[in-house]
């Protein structure tokens, strides 16, 4: 059991007209660690993400972040508390530049208040320091050369990077990544892996949804397995990924040989 | 040549200024925030009638009447926005177009005729403050190739000053971090929520500001003329969208340039039709004026084909898919 949980959820239940999507009895995410949320398609991982971040409302359940109850809070309030998410289908702001995307990640810019907007004296210096910080983060993600380009001109992989960089810009305590590797080419996968580990080194907690077992084994400190809305296993990657329940969950939902091969690889 | 000069005169008329102002308000909604307001004419009507009734029925002074009118516009925007902005964009479109029509029918009906004049509208007994402050010499004044009555020129001067002032204010707003949040909301609301922005509050602020600008435009619109309920139909809103797209949405000067071009083209086609009638090309003016809208339609189609981003718009923005 984690001894210092940053996120604790209990009895979270969400059903859509009789179909149970999420039915989680208990989940605790350890502070400063990387936790992977895995499970077959339709297991309810993304729905669970949406619930935790306020983008969807459950029929029942309570959860707390950093000791504060956050169930029922609007998504922007959850984000302001330091729990920032990305999306499975990347949401970059296409007709804004890469730099503008980053600046929007900045929190507590007083110029975002209507009453201060027409007084640049109040927000200009903050904007300048934000630009410097944004360029530094973009440099780490090798996007600094693209700063003045429209975000819509980025490739799919670059968009994933931008979304992650933008989340970091808001100085979160916990980053929730919904399938950060989906649709990303193998070369970029390595770079993304590196960035996720980097988040931990900077003291952030990471919870991410992933299908690629190789990657999960590589970066995760803990693994949580969902199937049919329930958490069926959790623990260290090695022990969880060799458990028969997990293998059953994947084999029960998938019959394609690729996954069989994958599990054989993992067991060998 | 007379045709050309007569048409170009439209660049500085009060009507062009009033439409430019209302289109600036609509640009705050549609161009910068992505709000589909199909009822900007409703805000303009609130402005025109709010001012005229404040002065004529309640005897308020002009500055006070302007203040009352702006408060009414803010309340109207809140009434429209609070229930609908939480919902998807199309709901705001339905509610704004419907409520603008409700306003127009209510103003047109005889039920409130003692205030609104019903279908007759209101004669101009409310612009005395403006005419009284006219510093220009009386009579007919010449400005370049054009002549104006003293009052018309003064009203045009005041109108364009207001347009310049509001355009400057909108420029400051949209180039601030606040304006950046609006553009972010236009692109993706969920992304903005995930970054901790109170999306509904920003949308409400944008609706109120753009609506208040629309009401201000309504006040300007009726100063040189009388108040006619027929003017505030859906066509007024769609003309404003035309101007916005013509000049370039999400630019500060786009709506102003759009309004100028729109009215010049309208006048030019009108003059052409008159010439055609005189030359015996058409049987009567009605037949000719139908042709006028055909000409305007052709001009618009050509614009969308050859310059879809508008005159001032940025073409690269359009080379990407919307999402």
Question: What about the largest sheet of chain B?
Answer: 2 strands, antiparallel
Report the β-strand fraction of chain A as a percent range.
Answer: 15-25%
Computed Rg of chain B: 20 Å
Strand content of chain B: under 5%
Count of helix runs of chain B: 15
Question: What is the 3D form of chain A?
Answer: globular
Distance between the termini of chain A: 27 Å
Q: Portion of residues in helices of chain A?
A: 40-55%
The H/E string of chain A reads EEEHEEHEHHHHEHEHEEHHH
Given as residue ranges, the uncertain stretches of chain A (5+ residues, pLDDT < 50) are 253-257
Listing every helix as H and every strand as E from the N terminus to the C terminus, the arrangement of chain B reads HHHHHHHEEHHHHHHHH
Specify the structural class of chain A: alpha/beta
Read across the widest sheet of chain B, the strand sequence of neighbours is 1-2
Structure overview:
The complex is a heterodimer of chains A (268) and B (323). Chain A has 268 residues and is an alpha/beta fold. Chain A contains eleven helices and ten strands. In chain A, strand 7 (174-178), helix 7 (186-201) and strand 8 (205-209) form a beta-alpha-beta unit. The longest helix of chain A has 21 residues, at 120-140. The radius of gyration of chain B is 20 Å and the shape is globular. Chain B starts with a helix and ends in a 5-residue tail after the last helix. In chain B, strands 1-2 form a two-stranded antiparallel sheet. Chain B is mainly α and 323 residues long. At the A-B interface, helix 2, helix 3, helix 4 and helix 5 of A face helix 8, helix 9 and helix 10 of B.
